[in-house]
Amino acid sequence: MLDANIKAQLQSYFTKLRRPIVLKAALDGSQDATNIEALLKEVAELSDKISYEVESDASVRRPSFTVAPQGGHEGIRFACLPMGHEFTSFVLALLQTGGHPAKISDEESRQIAALKGPLNFEVFISLSCHNCPEVVQALDLISILNPNATVTVIDGALFREEAAGRNVMAVPTVFLNGQSFLSGRRELSEILAKLDTSVAEAAQASISAKAPFDVLVVGGQVNETADIENFTSILKTDGTALAGNFTAHLKSYDIDIITPHSVAKIEREGDMWRLVLENGSELRSKTIIAASGARWKQLEVPGVAYCPHCDGPLFKGKRVAVVGGGNSGVEAAIDLAGIASSVVLLQRGSELTADKVLQEKLLSLPNVTVKYRASTSKLTGSNKLEKLFYLNRETGETESIDVDGCFVQIGLKPNTEWLDGAVELNAYGEVAVSDRCTTSAPGLFAAGDCTSVPYKQIVIALGEGAKAPDDTITFSLKGDGPAPVPISFVAHLFAQRLKERIPPCAMCAHSCLPSPRSPSSCWCSSPAFTSSSRPNASPPVWPTRSRIISG
Asked: Fewer CB within 10 Å: C terminus or N terminus of the chain?
C-alpha cells in the first residue's frame, strides 16, 4: 500500500518516537477493513516502537482502529482508511502519541490540559477534503494531551448512511458528546475558544492591548481554495499548502500574524482606523489594506451549499442537483456525474455560459439532465434534504425534483460586509479602487478579489497585493499619500482632462489623470510619488510595526 519512498520517510520520522504505541484494529471482513489492516501492518513493520493488534470488543465501530500509547488512553479512533489528505493526520497522530512534541505554544498546551470532560468528539470528513485535516489534527491533539477527551474520525463516504442519518451534508462536521458542535475549517485556537470561554476572553484582552500599527492587512482567503492549477512555477497545489508557504515566508520578518479572527466593524477615529473583531477586541492602525477576498455565493433559500471536491464523496450513488451553468457549475456537474447516480443542473438562463468544451462534455454524460430557465426557490426535507423546488421561468409554474444533495455554484461574492459604510463599494459589493489600490477613504487601500479589479485569479490578486503597500507606506509615514479616487469619479476626471485640454505631464509625457490635490498637475508629479519635488524629504523607510489579520 505504501511505496518504498514513503516507507523510507516514515522510518526516518519514527526515530522521533519516545514511547511505544499500539495500533488496534476493529475489522468486519469488508474490503475497507482489509485495506486498513494492510496499512497498519505495513506501518507497524517500520518501527519497533509500533505494534499491531486486533480489537476484540464487538461493540466498537467497524471498520476502525485506535492509535494509543501502550497501556494508555485510547483517545484517537480512525473510522476510515487515512490516506489522501488525512495521511498527514495519521502520521502526526502516531508521532504525537509516541511522545514527539506538537508545534503549539505552552499556553495552548496548558489550555488543552485544563479542559473539563467528558469531551467525546466525532468528526465527519472526506479523504478529498483539504479543509478537514486541520480540524482532525486539532482534535487529535486535544485527545492526546487531555485524558478526558476522545475523537473518532469518520469517513462520511465509508459510513454514508450514518452521515445521512445525522444530516451531515458537508465536511468537516464535528459532534461533541452527540450534539452538533461546529462545521467547516477551524484552527486549534478557535476550537479551544469555543470549548473554554476564558480562552476567548484572554485572546480578546491580548489583542486589545496591542499598540496602534502603521499598516494593518486584513485577508487570508486563499486558504479556502481547493485546487490551484497553473500557478506560475507550480503545476498544481491547493490553498492550504500555498497559504502555508505564505505564512512561513511572513514569519521570516518582524510581522505580527493573528488568526483566526474576522473583522466585524471598521470606523475612522481621527487620523486612525479602528477595527472591532468578532470577539470584541479592537485594533488601531494608521492605514488598512483590505485583502479579504471573495466567497461562493449562497442561494437565498433555506438549505446548504456544498463543495463538490470535499463533499462529493458523501453522495456516492445518490441524486444531486447543481445550481449554476457557468464554468464552475458545469465542472462540478461533470465531476459529480462520476460519483452520483444522477445529476440535475439548473440554469437561470436559456443557455449554459460555460466554455464550449465543458458544455460538450456535460451533455455527453448519460446521467446528467440540464433544466434551462430554472430559478431555484426552496430546499426541503425532514432530517435531510429531499426536494428542490424551482420556478420554471417559461411556464411560470413551480416544479420540484427529488434530490439528496445540492451543490451551489453561482459565482463569487466579495467579503466586504465589514467595510460597508466606510468605503465606496460598486454594484457588486466590491471595493472601488484606482490603479494604485486607493479607495474613497483616506488611509484605506484594497487589493485582490474583494476589489473592482477584473479577473479573479490568485496570480492577479498577488500582483495587486504587491502594489498596495507602496502607497500605504507613503501615507503611513508622511501622511500625504495619494488622495482617494472613487471609481465613480474616474469618468469625471477623464472628461475634465478632455474638456480643459491639460497638456501632457512634464514628468511622464502622458495626459494622465490630474491629481485630486492639484487639478493642474499629474498623479506622478504628486509629492506622494517623488522626493524630487520635496528636497527636504527623507528617504522612505518601512514601518516598524505591521499586522496581518487572517480569517
From this structure: N
